C-alpha cells in the first residue's frame, strides 16, 4: 500500500485518562489505517476505545503516545489555531449526542460550517436545505432541534458534517436511532462521499444492517485493533451501486 493512499495512519497510538490508581488506559497502542476513496468501519464491544480513537483522529482529544498522520499532516506540527483551522476545513464529525445549537433551525445548524468558511448566508442555507431534503427532512428544515425526534436530529448532525465537503468524515453510530430506510439514506450519502479519491469516511457502528457498505472493517477490543478484514464493497462497486 502506498502511503499516499492513506488518509489516516495511527501507529502505536495510546491514550489514558487520569493518573495513579484512577488511570484508565483507553488506547493501548493502536495501529489503524483508513484509505482515501474508502468507507472504513470500526467495530467492537462498548467501552473498547472506539469513540476515543476517532476523537483522537479528529483532533478532539490529544493522544498520550504513538504517532498520528491525518490527511498528510501531523497534528503535533500544527499550532492550536492551526489545528482548529485544519479541522474546520478538512474534517466533519458526527457525534452521538448530535450537539445541535438549540437557537438555530435545522437548516441553520447545517449551514454553520459553510458560514464559518465565509459562504454567503443565502447560499449556505440553500445548500443546507438541499442536503436535508436528501435525508428526508425537507418538511423540517425550519424546525428547531427541540421539536425534532432523535433520528431527525441525527440526520441534521450528519448533514452538518457533510455540507462543506470535508476530506475526512468521522461518524459515531450514525444509524443508531434510525429505521432501515433512513439508515440506508444516511449510508448512501456517506458512501457517495467516500468514493472520491481525495476523501475518506470512518464509521463507528454496531449496526450489522449496514456492514455491506464497508470496504474494510477494523475490529477493536480492550483499546487495541485486533483484526482488520476487507469486505465485499470496493470503490468501483460502490460507484456502480450509487450510479
Can you identify the CATH superfamily? Answer: P-loop containing nucleotide triphosphate hydrolases
Largest sheet: 6 strands, mixed
- Approximate helicity band: 25-40%
In the sheet with the most strands, the strands line up as 5-6-7-3-8-9
Number of domains: 1
Order of secondary-structure elements? EEEHEHEHHHEHEEEH
Portion in strands: 25-35%
CATH architectural grouping: 3-Layer(aba) Sandwich
Secondary structural class: alpha/beta
Radius of gyration: 18 Å
Shape: globular
User: Distance N terminus to C terminus?
Assistant: 27 Å
CATH class: Alpha Beta
Q: Compute the number of strand runs.
A: 9
| Low-confidence residue ranges | 234-239
Looking at CATH, which topology would you report? Rossmann fold
Number of helices: 7
- The average pLDDT value, as a whole number, equals 89
Topology:
Blueprint: E1 6-17, E2 24-35, E3 39-43, H1 50-57, E4 65-70, H2 80-90, E5 91-94, H3 106-116, H4 121-134, H5 150-162, E6 168-172, H6 180-194, E7 200-204, E8 216-221, E9 224-230, H7 235-242
Parallel strand pairs: 3-7, 3-8, 5-6, 6-7
Antiparallel strand pairs: 1-2, 1-4, 8-9
Helix pairs in contact: 3-4, 3-5, 6-7
